[in-house]
């Protein structure tokens, strides 16, 4: 075998350029059946970052169904979620009916793509108050003439001036200019709710609720109510279902009574009304302040199913809707769910005949079929190592979105009867020779006090270049966002961009990450800025000790909460030669004084501690207050429309470095929010990061614009 020629790390020629990463960095999302057609959301970075709907007919052809400028996106909680639903309307023969939230104005629209007029028509009004009206996790009930969903309504200009409830929007369009035509199915005493799930017989409904200061992975309540009035018969989630009756029901405002008494079950009274369905006998049957229910669904036979972490792991349970008695269907030290960052995420779906399709695992999650009678789970064979929480079912068929280390996310269908899976949409194709892609190594390191630290190591890989003798490759240590989250075990061309050039990447699932049980998740409680920094340092130190990485050429990188960890790491350790922070959170004092968006406005109470009890900790832990300790070059990348992490915090860190001789750059992007969507932004950000490493580590990066560093 002829040895490969060597070249300095960082200089290897690579076909993985920034434009390629930007074009292929998105993935299909929120897939669902509408009759026998499959639909899903797809990002379009080259079209201003809009999100469109793709339709795949039974014959196998797929095409963009929703033309520009329509943008399928909801801003509920600022992190969004499921923004569309559809029904086949087989009885009327009029083709599918879809409902979606449009990004620019956040209104709900009805759309009949096969109708005589395929133009979407508005269903909901606009509001000039604060963030207006927003809608998420819709469920179509054409037999009732309505779409049920989560309504987020701003009552003032502040981020906390908001109320949320379950609402019914008439499909005939009469609410398009009349807010009073939207019926409120619940009141707003719970700060947060998920979309409603109607039982197959149409007599009961279930949803999740929680309140400040908890996040949904801390504690939620499973709420169940009886449905009085309207038309019987349940409906599915995002897809499936046939229209039965297309009549609309009245629009009188309803504010039902709900209550929770110290986490115990209570029965509530609710007003009845003659028009449309109303919820009565509303009760909490599962969950509480220290038990997180992540998802609830009804099986076709009327069984109530929910994932709860009462055992320390998110396991799937069968729940008695009357007593709340819960039976664990497959006890295991595995996660059958994850953090509810977006409304409408689905980690399991019931199938006809009793089986349940589930995502499960410790770390990465794979698809399996659970037998509720035996608890056995049969996993799906295939190259996929990671499945997104976006399952849907149609009889005994399951559809999901899956990826592997060498293949991007694609739409995969499983036949629950045969156990065979096949790609049916958004099929991965090799845009570069797979020999340029890294091979992730799943590792567990030993951190302080002997605790486990999970990570994946991506060494440099190139078919025609090798590391010279006597040289160790530079490495980038990445901290994921959240911080309650993890990094998927899936192909990431953004990682290959560096590894194919001779730069290794280590992604760290630090303490506080999901996927490893509640105890691992809660390691970060009141220790954010400590445990995450220590765990990243543990991985960096191990790479040095094992002779994998050059100790003089380490960088730390992260976005959002990961940007916080990166900034802390630069200030608290001398391990890293430079760092990159994308839309980072940097100042606890500003967040506490000025507020952030409502969903995360109390997040720091668990991550740092109650401010009234530990006020000094808010100052001590803020990376911006430690700016004078950062002595190495860094790059800040931030969208100017970010409602989650204000860009002023990045600007303040850049100002603090200016004049102290610390090389740095701050790139701000108009029209970008929390996370980048536009192709030109993605390209500029990635090339700027590589240029920082080239200047810091001492190699040439031909073809990449040189980043101008201020001092």
Protein model, in words:
This protein is α+β, with helices and mostly antiparallel strands and 711 residues long. The chain has 10 helices and 38 strands. Strands 31-32-34-33-35-36-37-38 form an 8-stranded mixed sheet, with helices on both faces. Strand 2 (37-44) and strand 3 (50-56) form a beta hairpin. Helix 1 packs across helix 10 and helix 4 crosses helix 5. The longest helix has 19 residues, at 679-697. Residues 235-274 have low confidence and may be disordered.
What tags apply to this protein structure?
single chain, 711 residues, alpha+beta, 5-stranded antiparallel beta sheet, 38 strands, 13% helix
